Amino acid sequence: MQHLARLNQDMVDPERIARFTLPVLRSGPVLPLRPSEDMPNPVAVAEEGDWPWELLDDCRRIFGAEVKPLLAPREAILMALNQAFDMASASAEQMLEDMGLDELTREIEEVGDLLESEDDAPVIRLVNTLISQALKERASDIHIEPFESKVLVRFRVDGVLHTIVHPPKAVQAALTSRVKVMAGLDIAEKRHPQDGRFRVKIAGREVDVRVSLLPTAYGERVVMRLLDRGARMLTLPELGMSEQQLAMMQEVIRSPHGIVLVTGPTGSGKSTTLYAALMEVDRKNRNVMTIEDPIEYQIEGV
Questions:
Q1: C-alpha distances in angstroms, 285 versus 253, 260, 279, 281?
Q2: Which residues, 6 or more positions from 263, have their beta carbon under 8 angstroms from its beta carbon?
Q3: Whole-model pTM above 0.85?
Q4: Contact between residue 114 and residue 226 where contact means Cβ atoms under 8 Å apart
Q5: What pLDDT digit, counting tens, does each position of 27-85 carry?
Q6: Which among 86, 146, 222, 252 could disulfide-bond with 218, CB atoms 3.0 to 4.6 Å apart, if both were Cys?
Q7: What are phi and psi of 68, to 5 degrees?
Q8: What phi and psi values does residue 63 have, to the nearest 5 degrees?
């Protein structure tokens, strides 16, 4: 049986994948590939684990041709599936254009993996899409800001806020309530600030979301801070310091005592810098502890 050394998005057929849901294809896992003259129905199958007979039979029945199984690493198939469904998800702006105002005020429930969610409540889909889109655009924060006659949603990318979408004013209460439900906050409390947090999965990636709500003249302002737990931590040399700055920073980090102040606005890289510095500390021969709330990343030896 043929073995695929690697999988890339050029080999994936989005139209064929769209015939299934993400949980179904993950259960194999099975990945429908782009057909060719030699192979009218190629399907990538995990090289380890149980053989997905039923899924392969579904592929044969749906696509009307005998299946050509191609072996591939399980993780590579799951990653390709996540990327395919992530790219297929609509933007928040497109969702608002497609949905009417009445649809946007339906009831609210909880979900697991946002890409696997099949909940049709439009407000739920809107919040899920905002979080998913923010991660795609590498945003650190989502701001939902109420004004007299409109609501503004902005993403903070590289420290700068960018306007993403203007939901109708009538959606404001449902949008805020949905975020409160996800963060386990009091929906009825609207006069005092509230802070909470929740964790979601998007395409298999765990994301921590810190939520802050502040009452204003036109309703509650919501800020969601996103922390992708699967993101790779940068090292000090990767931060873009000059050679002189890097040498100075490394010398300070290796000092037996002292204090380093890292300051700057939201999204400027304070936590990134401090975690990169922690990676330089001798964690084998020293007792290293941090005081932080919440703990953003787990580092071995800290």
A1: 14, 21, 14, 9
A2: 270
A3: no
A4: no
A5: 888 888 888 888 888 888 888 888 888 888 888 888 888 888 888 888 888 878 877 76
A6: 146
A7: -110, 95
A8: -95, -5
Angstrom distance (rounded) from CA 230 to CA 90 = 23
CA distance 243 to 15: 50
208-229 residue pLDDT tens: 899 999 999 999 999 999 987 7
Q: What does the block give as tokens for 30?
A: 């099975």
* Residue 100 neighbours by CB under 8 Å, 6+ apart: none
Token pair 């439009």 in the structure block, residue: 122
The Cα–Cα gap between 164 and 245 comes to 36
Beta partners for residue 3, in sequence order: 71
Residue with tokens 């407000």: 123
DSSP symbol at 9: G
Q: Token match 């590289």: residue?
A: 158
Looking up tokens 């290293």, which residue turns up? 288
Displacement of CA 174 from its chain's centroid (Å):
22
Domains of the chain: 9-85 (3.30.300), 89-228 (3.30.450.90), 232-301 (no CATH)
Tracing tokens 């919040």 back to the chain, one arrives at 127
The partner residues of 32 in beta bridges, in order of sequence, read 43
- Give bridge partners of residue 224 from the DSSP assignment: 142, 211
- Identify whether the C-beta of residue 164 lies closer than 8 Å to the C-beta of residue 144: no
Name, in order, each residue with C-beta under 8 angstroms of 28's C-beta and a sequence gap of 6 or more: 45, 46, 52, 55, 77
